[in-house]
Amino acid sequence: MNLLAFCRAFFRPVAVALATLCFTVHPAANAADLYPSRPVKIIVGYTPGGSSDTVARLLARNLQLELKESFIVENKPGAGGLLGAQAVAKSPADGYTLLMAISSHTILPSVHKKMPYDTEKDFLPIATVGTSPNMLVVRTDSPWRSLADFIKAAKAAPGTISYATPGIGTTTHVTAAMVAQAAGIQINHIPYKGSNEVMQSVLSKQVPLAVASIITAGAAIRDGRLRALAIVGPERSPLLPDVPTFEEQGIKGILGDNWLGLLAPAHTPQAIVSKLESTIKGLLAQPEIQRSLEAQGVAPQFGTGAAFGKTISRELKVYAELSKVTKFGG
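That's the MFS transporter sequence above. Prediction below.
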């Protein structure tokens, strides 16, 4: 065998093996490098102007700048966020349809006996972005100047005072149900499709009271149109330091310090999820974005996908037990 024939015989199998390896490894190895190659939709399960919508639009603008591709926010309101989540759960697992979720995501299974998706199995957590606690708010011309005033009025006329929230099974609904149980009062729930409608209903005097996050009601409180009677949390929020907590006013154990986070359909390639997670982490480290979130009523708080998944699992169990006691699904 001459030298040329030897080289052909020896190196051809090696070349074929290397080519095969490149073609089998290349797509997975470069999935993150090629993403995104077309516009990405971020679904929000509520009307424009609410907490998840506000943060989704801020995140979309900055992801677009960072990843050089369009990120478009699409609102699919209804059923306390369920319709938007359902749309994402049924979407292709390719990273081009994402869900901006809030804490209500883990409450819905305790409200609806038959869910159109599995809250854990049908989604892949990407990252958390921040938190925004709930508050009990009234107009500034309300006779209730404190939480004690409101509770006294509710006890004097059981079942006659109505309150607004963005929907059944939202964190605001749970907060109100817990307050009612802890204070021993009966109040009527009026659910709307989104936070914007809740604010309009209170400001236009359709309802005297609402439960809303800092994102939703913070601006109206600062400009004097609304008064916050109490806020959820172990201590006062630095975003509204003059608002007392439920805790310091004697109403303990109230939940509603909402997280906001991004989810993908289950089975989305891990390389894409990891790229989004690391990009969001970098964005949240920027002082300008931190200030933008705080201006919207959100305390910036990055959480990994793994930590986010544990939070979801834990809250599903907590709210399932809580629903048996407070009956917030009713």
